[in-house]
Each structure stands twice: as structure tokens, then as C-alpha cells.
Amino acid sequence: MSMTRESMSTTIADLVRMAPRATGTPGGRAAADYVEHRFDAAGLQTQVLEVPSYSWRAVQCGIRVGDAEVACAPILHSGLAAHDWTGDAEHRIDTPVVDIGTDRVRRHDVRGAIVLFDLTFDMTVAHSLPLTLYLHDPGRRVLRRDVLGSRNPYVTSLARTMRDAAAAGAVAVIGVLRDYPDSRNYHNEYYRRTLFPLPGAWVTRAEGARLRSLLRAGGSRAHLTLDVERREVTSRTVIGVLPGRTTDAIMIQSHHDSIGPGAVEDASGTAEVIALAEHYGAAASAGAVREKTLLFVTFDTHFTGYQAHRAFAAQHVLSREAPWNIVLNATIEHIGLRAVEGGDGGFTSTGETEPRGIFVNVNPAFTARIARAVRRHRLHGTSLMGAGPLEFFAGGIPTDASFTFVSGVPTVSLISGPLYLYDDADTIDRIDVEQLEPVARFFADLVDDADRRDGRLLGWIPARIRRMLPRGRW
After folding, report:
1. Apex CA 302: angle with CA 296 and CA 305, to 5°?
2. What's the predicted TM-score (pTM) here?
3. What does the buried/exposed string (b/e) look like for 22-51 if buried means 16 or more CB atoms within 10 Å of the residue's CB?
4. 96 phi, psi to nearest 5 deg
5. Angle of helix 26-41 relative to helix 269-285, nearest 10 degrees?
6. N or C, which end of the chain has less CB nearby within 10 Å?
7. pLDDT by residue (tens digit) across 88-141?
């Protein structure tokens, strides 16, 4: 019964009730305890990887032009003196504003100024087409102009703008959510390679228009307030082990942390991992013995710098003392419905599956079998994307699997990017309930297929050759 939509829907509801499941919060600890309990009940050997991370919180955030207040929300993880900085900081900035719109910072003199910019979402569904090896799209649900032009909310201009503004001598940034529904609850990720040293705030499209009007009337000067506190906390990543005949291992992964309700991101992926753990745990209890060990992992720190992901890769992939030889990573994220901006300015569901990509860097024969499994399980709106070159030339893939991926593990990573993913609008009604069971059964087929194969040959580059190449470029 574990891989039914009813059981997975119940798991998702349980996790959403714990939200926010942010790293180091009561909700985050409750989610880790919940996963550990479910793994233990499924008959897995459980362990918890505890790694230091950081909890960032805005105590106060405000924008004022003259006597007029403009509603805003903080840019998460902004105002940091260093990646490992902890403490309290009060930012009181009263200075001219330089409005760059969607332009690049370098074309403006922003020294001593607040940079006002329009956040752009830089990756559309169409951008994935050059990587696409196979697309299952019955009824042309993906190959429509409106769908191909839709943008995900996590590949954006924020990191570039913050980096360039700081380098050019700016003192703060204000981001206008111009191409976003009427919500300032946009919970941006911490991009791990880019420090956000400047304090910053988000405003909606309407608030941005009002702010610009006030600046034109009031002499182009604004007051920004941002008080933040950052504390070191302990993250908790849960690992469940189902031993096989060998220490060659297949890893099934998602992440249980969230900033808001986190139904699609990523209670849905965690529910899939738990369902698969229970499925294989029940088979083991009935006497089935697998060739390869199975590792079920739900990560913490997805939103706070990926410290747990890096520690796991260092300890369990790159280390000579690693207890397992991970020959395949299967990562599951975001089983959600597509949404667009509605007439009321909010998020309106289309009732269709959000287009999904499965990043693969496995051998051609395995890739062909995966494509057949996508079709067999009717994972409509799903493409296979060749990720091999991204390991060396792009520094990873935009999924939770990126750190084991660049450490040399053959990977099959499913992900989608619905517009509401980083918003408080990521509620349980966004789940693509009809796809929960097909996705689980697809990954069960994937795991069973890999269990029958020589683990040294699963990757797009055989393991013997891969060991000679650079690894772990984070």
C-alpha cells in the first residue's frame, strides 16, 4: 500500500502540517524525526547526519520614501558579512536610488546608492530543449508556445545583480517582482557560491510602480531598513539503509526542509522516497534479498547553503573510507501542477502537470530503457535531458543531486519548476495527485533495473575512466 496516491498524499499532509520545515527550526527537526521514524518502521537501518548550517531571520524590513511607506519583504540571506558570519546586524540606509530596471549594473554609476532592479526569471522550458534526449508529450502539453515560454522561479538575476552591485560600491538592493504574481512571499534560495553582502528587499510589481512614482516625485532618495540575525544551527539529514549482498549502493534522494508550506517543494519528493523505502522494506521483510544496498536519504540545508549535501558527498562518495560504493543516484523533486498568474493577480492552477525534466548521465542503453519507462508509466510532460557535459562544463545541475553528481555518481534526477515553488502559495492543493503513484512506480522500475546491472558500467563514462577525471568541483 506504500506506493499509492492515498498513502503518499497522507505523508505530504503530515509534512505540510509541520511547516515551515526550515533548517534548525522546530518544524525542521520534526520533519527529520518523522522521516527517521518512517524509515525505522519500514525496517531500514537509520542514521542521522548532523552538520552545522545557519538560520537567517529578518527582524525588521522597511522601505520609506519621504513620509510614504512602501510594503516590502526581505531578500532572504541578504546583509551577510561572510558565508560563515553569525550575529546581529542593523542596516539603516538613507541614500539615492539608481533604477537599473532589467539592465546590467555595470552600465550605471551605483557607488553609495541603492540599486533598484527588476528580477528576471532567466530559464524557460524552451531553454531545456537543447539538452533534451527524449520528450513524452502526448497531446502536446509541453510543445505549446505559452508553456515553452513559462519560466521557473529559481534561475534568476538575483545572484548576478547582488554580486555586481556589491562590486560596484552599491550599499543595498531592492528587487521588483515584475514578472511574478501579486505576492511578496518569494523565498529566494541561498545560492552557496554567491554571498549576499548587501541588505535587500522585495516589492511586488504594483509596489515597485508606486516606489518608482514616489522616487520621481521625491528626489530619487529612499530609506531602507533591514535588521537581521543569523545563528549557527545543526541540520539533520536522514539516511535509511537496506543492506544488499554487496556494498555497491543505489541512492534514492529528496529533501525534507522548506521555508513556507513546502507541499511540492519538497514534501512531494520526501513522500516518494518514504513510499519507496516502505516498498523495498516490505519486500525485504518477505525474504527478498537484493544485490545492491539501497540508501534512502532526505536532506536538510537545501535553503541554507547545502552544507549537508557537501558533507554527505565528502564522507560517502569522495572519501576512501566511504562505507558504500554509490553507483547510482535517483533524486525525486516537485510532483506538482502547473500554475500561471490569474486574473486576480494570484496563482491559478491549470490542472496540468508542470513540465518535468529528468537529468541523466547514465549509459545510452540505460537511458533508452529509462525513456521507455517514462512512456510506460505515462509520465506525461516529461523530458530526459543529457546531463553528462554539465558535470564538467557547468559545475552541476539545478537539482538536489548536484553534489553527488559532480562527485562522479551516475544520476537520474527528476525535477520541475512551477511558478509558485518558492512561495507561500506552495500548498497541498498544488500537488499533482494523479502523478504520485506513476512517479513512484517509475523509480521502482529504475532501481530494479540498476540492481541487475554492473554498477561500474551504469554511468555515461565507465567508472574506471571516471576515476581518472577531476572530482568534487563544488
Report:
1. 130
2. 0.93
3. bbbbebbbbbbebbbebbeebbbebeebeb
4. -60, 155
5. 20
6. N
7. 999 999 999 999 999 999 999 999 999 999 999 988 888 888 889 999 999 888
Which alpha helices (H) appear in 234-304, and where do they start and end?
269-285
Q: What crossing angle do the helices spanning 5-17 and 269-285 adopt, rounded to 10°?
A: 130
Q: Which of 334, 469, 365 is nearest to 408 (CA)?
A: 469
d(CA 123, CA 104): 17
What is the tens place of the pLDDT at every residue in 445-463? 999 999 999 999 999 776 6
Angle formed by the axes of helices 433-451 and 269-285, nearest 10°: 50
* Grid coordinates of 338: 502547473
In angstroms, what CA-CA distances link 259 with 15, 113, 303, 308, 424?
Answer: 12, 30, 8, 17, 8
pLDDT band, residue 396 (cuts 50/70/90):
confident
Spatial distance between the Cα atoms of 277 and 85, rounded to a whole number of angstroms: 38
**Best CA proximity match to 280, nearest among 48, 454, 452, 441:** 441
Q: Which residue has the cell 552545522?
A: 52
